[in-house]
Amino acid sequence: MPAKDLYHDRVRSALIKDGWRITRDTYQIKFKEIKLYADLAAETMFAAERDRKQIIVEVKSFLGASRVRDFEAAIGQYILYRLYLSQIFPEATVYLAINSDIYRSFFLKEAIEFVIKELNIQLIIVDIDREVIVRWINS
Questions:
Q1: Is 1 among the domain residues?
Q2: Which of 18, 50, 98, 115 is buried deepest, with most CB atoms within 10 A?
Q3: How would you label 55-70 residue by residue, b for 16+ Cβ within 10 Å and e otherwise?
Q4: Is residue 3 included in any domain, yes or no?
Q5: What is the pLDDT of residues 76-104, one digit of tens each?
């Protein structure tokens, strides 16, 4: 099993504060002969519709030597997870959770916004210090 991201527990806490129930603290994605591990699986009830929404969350800290390299790796993981899950757990939505500081300093660059929009990447922006979700972005 892979190591947890540095911000894993803080994102987990933020999701719980936002009303999500964590169903798995490492989610195994098994597609044919491949096994991958996303950071979190969560669900919530929408009282008005009484319908469950389930999400799979990959947490990324972007603390490597190159944010572009970290971005490439994160997008690759995200796309694999989304593709495999579309076959084995199609009702789940995959999100990439990132720190609000990284969002402001890197993800708002025009070239990065272009990729997020074109690939329809779903983001959860988390204030890591306060452990709260500040924004959901559904491209």
A1: no
A2: 98
A3: bbbbbbbbeeeebeeb
A4: no
A5: 999 999 999 999 999 999 999 999 999 99
Assess if residue 2 is contained within a domain.
no
Q: Say how many domains are in the chain.
A: 1
Judged by DSSP in three states, 65 sits in coil
What are 1-60's pLDDT values in tens digits? 566 778 889 999 999 999 898 988 889 999 999 999 998 888 765 444 445 789 999 999
| Domain assignment of residue 16, yes or no | yes
pTM of the model: 0.90
Q: b or e along 22-43 (b: 16 or more beta carbons within 10 Å of the residue's beta carbon)?
A: eeeeebebebeeeebbbbbbbe
Q: Which two tokens stand for residue 27?
A: 């989610």
Residue 82 contacts residue 119 (beta carbons within 8 Å): no
The CATH number that applies at residue 41 is: 3.40.1350.10
